[in-house]
């Protein structure tokens, strides 16, 4: 028998697991967190944070290249890639240390090792037994692999590998034009890599509002990227100068060559070695099946974040962690509510959205009328002072009640701006509510207010109203 029984045992120390552990401790529970690698998970060590640190370095470089526009003389600019990556690692290490400090300060026991469920109340961690009244699975996800010949060749990498590169590739084919693929495309295209994106679907970044996805495709091509959509990759082979990626279009077979191939076709729930089948835990293909309360079919066992295969975002994993812990400890009987989940994409320019896209609004079962209000960044005083006028704010609202249904932004600091929209939709605010809220000037949030004015008498800072388009009505 183990010497200590914990109230909660959490498997996985990513943004779901470590948040769950801290929340459980706040609620008075005795908590153990099992992690086989570094705390922070993929997001902190190989995903969100390192990629955004790399993006920031690229933004500084691009700003410096435009120095003459701002009256700043610059010369001899070049990217020192090893230093760029060293800064990225400093940011990661600092944040990992911070999470470790939070766990220690919260009296969470951190156990290093690989966990397997021995029973609904027991974990086996590298030969040691851990007893807990409740178990929460937070093992996250890994880069997906597709059954394409040649993906095991040297030079074919995943997103985990890219954040550890020590040099800039001269050319790169990115298989997959989703969020991960396009973020890396923006980074490497900006620092001189010849980037080709091959996407199977008709549009890149499928979660994004289609209008913004199309606009970004045009911007990316102007930035020097080659983007091929509607293309099914059939194989990768070694070729002169690197690798050749073959793909099928409706017009026939095509291929392209590059020094490096990045496979960025999404992520898959990670359940390897957990012993779920032996315990009889119901699965949804590779994902752990849970109900709205994040419970599995086994009493006392919960699952959160990417391993459930639902909404695979770090901030959703953190939200899940708090909900699961509160339910497991009997503090609440709370169901998850994913109506308002902002998505953020750190491309150049940034893209963010929350709520319904225009297509989703159009496809609603009740066919309720809606209207779209748009405001161009080129009409924003703050965007002009920043010298970043590419993009727009798009607000979708109910045609009758004016309640906000969705907000989508492409432009500078879109990923920060979306917070106002998320709160507005959460509080069921209307276009009138946003319009009557005084926004500071000159700021980027004013663009959200201007777009909501298109649902009333019209925006102030555009002369005509070409941006407002009606949706279908009853």
Radius of gyration: 24 Å
Helix and strand content put the structural class at alpha/beta
CATH C-level class of the largest domain is: Alpha Beta
> Which sheet architecture does the biggest sheet show?
7 strands, mixed
Unreliable segments of 5+ consecutive residues:
467-474
CATH structural fold name of the largest domain:
FAD/NAD(P)-binding domain
Distance between the termini: 66 Å
Enumerate how many helices there are, as a single number. Answer: 14
CATH architecture name of the largest domain: 3-Layer(bba) Sandwich
Percent in strands: 25-35%
Number of domains: 3
Number of E strands: 25
Helicity, in percent? 25-40%
Mean pLDDT: 94
What is the 3D form? globular
- Assembly classification: single chain
Output the CATH homologous superfamily of the largest domain: FAD/NAD(P)-binding domain
Fold and architecture overview:
This protein is of the alpha/beta class. The protein has three domains: 5-143 and 268-328, FAD/NAD(P)-binding domain, CATH 3.50.50.60; 156-265, FAD/NAD(P)-binding domain; 349-470, 2-Layer Sandwich (Enolase-like, domain 1). It has 14 helices and 25 strands. It has helices spanning 17-26, 41-45, 48-65, 81-105, 159-162, 179-190, 210-222, 276-279, 314-328, 358-362, 381-386, 414-426, 431-435, 446-453, and strands at 5-11, 31-35, 109-112, 115-119, 122-125, 128-137, 141-143, 156-157, 171-175, 194-198, 226-228, 232-239, 242-249, 252-258, 260-263, 267-269, 283-284, 287-288, 301-303, 343-345, 351-355, 370-376, 392-398, 404-410, 469-470. The strands form six sheets. Strands 1, 2, 3, 4, 5, 6 and 19 form a seven-stranded mixed beta sheet that branches. It has a six-stranded antiparallel beta sheet with strand order 20-21-24-23-22-25. It has a five-stranded parallel beta sheet with strand order 8-15-9-10-11. α1 (17-26) packs parallel to α9 (314-328), α3 packs antiparallel against α4 (81-105) and α3 runs parallel beside α6. The longest helix has 25 residues, at 81-105. It is globular. The N and C termini lie far apart (66 Å). 45% of the residues are buried.
């Amino acid at each position: 028998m183990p010497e200590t029984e914990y109230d909660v045992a959490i498997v996985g120390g990513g943004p779901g697991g470590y948040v769950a552990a801290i929340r459980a401790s706040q609620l008075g529970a005795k908590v153990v967190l099992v992690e086989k690698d570094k705390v922070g998970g993929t997001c902190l060590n190989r995903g969100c944070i390192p990629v955004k640190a790399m993006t920031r370095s690229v933004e500084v470089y691009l700003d410096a290249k435009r120095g003459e526009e701002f009256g700043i003389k610059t010369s001899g600019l070049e990217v020192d890639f090893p230093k760029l990556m060293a800064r990225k690692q400093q940011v990661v290490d600092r944040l990992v240390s911070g999470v470790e400090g939070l766990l220690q300060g919260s009296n969470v026991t951190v156990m290093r090792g690989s966990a397997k469920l021995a029973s609904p109340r027991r974990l086996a961690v590298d030969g040691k037994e851990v007893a807990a009244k409740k178990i929460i699975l937070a093992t996250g996800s890994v880069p997906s692999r597709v059954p394409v010949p040649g993906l095991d060749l040297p030079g074919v990498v995943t997103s985990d590998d890219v954040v550890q590169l020590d040099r800039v590739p001269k050319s790169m084919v990115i298989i997959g034009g989703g969020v991960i693929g396009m973020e890396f495309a923006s980074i490497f295209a900006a620092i001189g890599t010849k980037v080709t994106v091959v996407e199977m679907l008709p549009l890149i970044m499928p979660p994004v509002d289609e209008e913004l996805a199309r606009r970004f495709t045009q911007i990316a091509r102007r930035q020097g990227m080659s983007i091929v959509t509607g293309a099914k990759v059939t194989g990768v082979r070694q070729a002169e100068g690197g690798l050749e990626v073959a793909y099928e279009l409706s017009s026939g077979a095509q291929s392209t060559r590059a020094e490096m191939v990045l496979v960025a076709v999404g992520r898959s729930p990670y359940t390897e070695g957990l012993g779920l089948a032996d315990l009889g835990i119901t699965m949804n293909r590779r994902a752990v099946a849970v109900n709205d309360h994040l419970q599995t079919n086994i009493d006392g066992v919960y699952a959160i974040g990417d391993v459930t295969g639902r909404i695979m975002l770090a901030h959703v994993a953190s939200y899940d962690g708090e909900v699961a812990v509160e339910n497991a400890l009997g503090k609440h009987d709370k169901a998850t509510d994913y109506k308002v989940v902002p998505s953020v994409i750190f491309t150049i320019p940034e893209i963010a959205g929350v709520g319904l896209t225009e297509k989703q609004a159009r496809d609603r079962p009740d066919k309720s009328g809606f209207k779209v209000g748009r405001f161009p960044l080129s009409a924003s005083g703050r965007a002009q002072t920043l010298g970043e006028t590419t993009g727009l704010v798009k607000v979708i609202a109910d045609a009758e009640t004016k309640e906000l249904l969705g907000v989508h932004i492409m432009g500078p600091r879109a990923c920060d701006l979306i917070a106002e929209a998320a709160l507005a939709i959460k509080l069921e605010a209307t276009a009138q509510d946003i319009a009557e809220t005084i926004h500071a000037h000159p700021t980027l949030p004013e663009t959200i207010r201007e777009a909501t004015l298109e649902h009333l008498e019209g925006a102030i800072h555009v002369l005509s109203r070409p941006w407002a388009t009606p949706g279908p009505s009853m």
